[in-house]
């Protein structure tokens, strides 16, 4: 079959868009909720979880450790248990599974093996493994500091104070905090190095731990202390995924009209909340009401200069909008994106330029200058957010095809159907 036979022709908006898009639950909240509920004192319900490749892998990983994750209608019921090996965990290409489960596995009795997609073997996990060793875990990674790896648990972990450089992923810190209350001495994580990215995701970890009755001290910058003690979730409700709102809100920005996302939380730690500000600066009009959050396009798409370190996962969508803007953009602070699902900086520059655009790699981001785009294939590199960025470009540029739209199932199965609601 020729490659093009599998391509997805991105729909072009011929009129302004007018849609209300119900988004599934947040990947980051769902996978935190599953890990917390797995270590809790009593069974709990995770309400309105995301069901996608990343969360399915988390549920499967927990089940392989002996924890119950049962379907109960729209929800997931988690029945905690002492984790046990022997077990094999497939992390796929999910950073949250690759980083959040090793600390839990270190609490297991028996051996737990981890592996994943070939890209997962290239994503950083070394500082987390070193930290686990310092806390008393027996980790075998053949000196690679990467997958595949094995953790030989003896049913508990000493815990205590650990120093690590989390500048390549905030998930190292979140991972240690999520299981830290179950370590004998709890955990004190001290970050030392260039700034930690994705701060809102750390706030999410801390907030969800505190909501589960865990004591977390964040009074010192770059230091997190989790006291040992029980985890009592009482059930966890998952918010809609605001990072996945990005391409849908972008649709109204680039095509004109309006898109509403119902259930936008009044208070949230999700980085996607920053879209309200970012997309306003790029020309959108944002309003919040009982129907949800609405973005109206004004017909003007402006470029933006922004440090996206805190909200790195929004970069692919912002870069797509930037490629359609009337003024230049400079997106910085996201060097760590080179080790995400793909090297997102290189991939975005290559694909924007392949459509006739004018993008340039910076050491820690990209610069995009206005230039008319033309038809072509937008490659997704097995990256859900690259694929949805191709869809955004296709709204405004006739003849854009995304090579692998199915990769959106990592965090948003049903993306093509939801997108069809917007681009009808
Ligand atoms: O903790 C989380 O749920 C996440 C943290 C961030 O990871 P990095 O800090 O590695 O960028 C983010 O990019 C990822 O999509 C989800
Ligand atoms: C970086 C991302 O995912 P992961 O959880 O695999 O790190 C992402 O979703 O943009």
TrEMBL record:
The Enolpyruvate transferase domain, residue ranges: 13-417
The keyword Amino-acid biosynthesis is assigned to this record: yes
Sites where the protein binds phosphoenolpyruvate: 27, 95, 123, 171, 344, 385, 410
Annotated positions binding 3-phosphoshikimate: 27-28, 32, 169-171, 198, 313, 340
Active site residues per record: 313
Stored InterPro entries: Enolpyruvate_Tfrase_dom, Enolpyruvate_Tfrase_sf, EPSP_synthase, EPSP_synthase_CS, RNA3'P_cycl/enolpyr_Trfase_a/b
Pathway noted in the entry: Metabolic intermediate biosynthesis; chorismate biosynthesis; chorismate from D-erythrose 4-phosphate and phosphoenolpyruvate: step 6/7
Keywords: Amino-acid biosynthesis, Aromatic amino acid biosynthesis, Cytoplasm, Transferase
Location of this chain's protein in the cell: Cytoplasm
An example Gene Ontology CC term for this record: cytoplasm
Catalytic reactions on record: 3-phosphoshikimate + phosphoenolpyruvate = 5-O-(1-carboxyvinyl)-3-phosphoshikimate + phosphate
PROSITE patterns: EPSP_SYNTHASE_1, EPSP_SYNTHASE_2
EC number(s) stated in the UniProt entry for this protein: 2.5.1.19
Entry annotated with the keyword Amino-acid biosynthesis: yes
Complexes and interactors: Monomer.
PANTHER family according to UniProt: AROM/DEHYDROQUINATE SYNTHASE, PENTAFUNCTIONAL AROM POLYPEPTIDE
Similarity remark: Belongs to the EPSP synthase family.
Protein name: 3-phosphoshikimate 1-carboxyvinyltransferase
Source organism (scientific name): Streptomonospora salina
Originating gene: aroA
């Amino acid at each position: 079959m020729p490659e093009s036979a599998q391509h997805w022709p991105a729909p072009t908006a011929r009129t302004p868009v007018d849609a209300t898009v119900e988004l599934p639950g947040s990947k980051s909240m769902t996978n935190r909720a599953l890990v917390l509920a797995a270590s809790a004192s009593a069974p709990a319900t995770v309400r309105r979880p995301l069901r996608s490749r990343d969360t399915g892998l988390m549920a499967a990983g927990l089940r392989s450790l002996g924890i119950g994750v049962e379907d109960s209608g729209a929800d997931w019921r988690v029945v905690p248990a002492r984790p046990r090996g022997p077990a094999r965990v497939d992390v796929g290409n999910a950073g949250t599974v690759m980083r959040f489960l090793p600390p839990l596995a270190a609490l297991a009795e028996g051996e737990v093996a981890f592996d994943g997609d070939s890209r997962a073997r290239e994503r950083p996990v070394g500082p987390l493994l070193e930290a686990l060793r310092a806390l008393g875990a027996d980790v075998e990674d053949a000196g690679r500091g990467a997958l595949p790896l094995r953790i030989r648990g003896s049913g508990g972990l000493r815990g205590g104070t650990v120093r690590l450089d989390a500048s390549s992923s905030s998930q190292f810190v979140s991972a240690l905090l999520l299981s830290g209350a179950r370590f004998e001495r709890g955990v004190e994580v001290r970050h030392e190095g260039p700034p930690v990215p994705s701060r809102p995701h750390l706030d999410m970890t801390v907030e969800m731990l505190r909501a589960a009755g865990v004591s977390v001290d964040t009074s010192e910058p770059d230091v997190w202390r989790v006291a040992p003690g029980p985890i009592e979730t009482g059930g966890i409700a998952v918010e809609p995924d605001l990072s996945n709102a990005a391409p849908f809100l972008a649709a109204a920005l680039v095509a004109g009209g309006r898109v509403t996302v119902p259930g936008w939380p009044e208070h949230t730690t999700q980085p996607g909340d920053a879209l309200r500000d970012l997309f306003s600066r790029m020309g959108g009009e944002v309003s919040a009401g009982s129907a949800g959050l609405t973005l109206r396009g004004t017909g003007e798409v402006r470029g933006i200069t922004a440090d996206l370190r805190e909200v790195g996962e929004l970069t692919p969508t912002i870069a797509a909008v930037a490629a359609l803007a009337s003024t230049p953009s400079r997106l910085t602070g996201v060097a760590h994106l080179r080790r995400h699902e793909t090297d997102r900086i290189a991939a975005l520059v290559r694909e924007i330029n392949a459509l006739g655009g004018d993008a340039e790699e910076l050491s820690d981001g990209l610069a995009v200058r206005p230039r008319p785009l033309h038809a072509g294939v937008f490659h997704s590199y097995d990256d859900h957010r690259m694929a949805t960025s191709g869809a955004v470009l296709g709204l405004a540029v006739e003849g854009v095809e995304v090579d692998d739209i199915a990769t959106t199932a990592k965090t948003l199965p049903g993306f093509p159907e939801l997108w069809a609601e917007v681009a009808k």
